[in-house]
């Protein structure tokens, strides 16, 4: 757990308040970091798409702010991040299918529309990817709920508000 914690803090350059809050529980931070650092079939950009869509859907300003910065560190522009938060990614057809799948999954509590699921698979995703997408949705939902309940200070630059309420 200690190695994962140090690596995570090195990425952002400080100990995020989310991690400090998890540390109030004897095992939560280690469990959370193990989940975040598990081996996955998804690329970093794909995980950021999931993190942004889920955080927008759940209204978690902490995670939106953190993942806006992490998304930029992984090559997304501000405009792309704002679009991804609406459940679309017109700049990349595969990420677009992923964003739509994630939004449909969270909106419908795991019952994504058949059309969106088909687009997900046509885009090149597999059942192994589907499982990993759901695990990342769960991971991000945990953090969203923790922040929304605890409402600790956001220690990242605040994410821009969406101009239209798409989600």
Walk me through the structure:
InterPro entries: AhpD-like (IPR029032), AhpD_core (IPR004675), CMD-like (IPR003779). This is Carboxymuconolactone decarboxylase family protein. It holds the Pfam family CMD. The longest helix has 24 residues. This protein folds into 2 domains: about 40 residues, no CATH class; about 130 residues, AhpD-like (Up-down Bundle). The chain has 9 helices and no strands. Helix 4 packs parallel to helix 7 and helix 4 crosses helix 9. The radius of gyration is 15 Å and the shape is globular. The mean pLDDT is about 95. By secondary structure, it is mainly alpha-helical.
Task: Note the topology.
Blueprint: H1 2-12, H2 17-22, H3 28-36, H4 44-58, H5 61-73, H6 78-85, H7 93-107, H8 114-122, H9 127-150
Helix pairs in contact: 1-3, 4-5, 4-7, 4-9, 7-8
Protein name: Carboxymuconolactone decarboxylase family protein
Pfam families: CMD (PF02627)
Domain Carboxymuconolactone decarboxylase-like: 38-91
What's this model, at a glance?
This protein is mostly helical and 167 residues long.
């Amino acid at each position: 757990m200690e190695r994962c914690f140090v690596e995570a803090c090195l990425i952002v350059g400080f100990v995020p308040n989310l991690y400090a809050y998890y540390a109030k529980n004897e095992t939560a931070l280690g469990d959370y970091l193990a989940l975040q650092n598990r081996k996955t079939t998804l690329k970093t950009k794909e995980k950021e798409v999931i993190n942004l869509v889920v955080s927008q859907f759940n209204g978690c300003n902490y995670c939106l702010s953190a993942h806006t910065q992490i998304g930029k560190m992984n090559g997304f522009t501000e405009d792309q991040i704002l679009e991804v938060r609406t459940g679309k990614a017109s700049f990349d057809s595969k990420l677009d299918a992923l964003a739509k799948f994630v939004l449909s999954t969270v909106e419908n509590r795991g019952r994504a529309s058949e059309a969106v699921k088909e687009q997900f698979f046509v885009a090149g995703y597999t059942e192994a990817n589907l499982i990993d997408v759901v695990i990342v949705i769960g991971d991000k939902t945990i953090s969203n709920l923790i922040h929304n309940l605890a409402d600790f200070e956001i220690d990242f630059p605040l994410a821009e508000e969406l101009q239209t309420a798409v989600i």
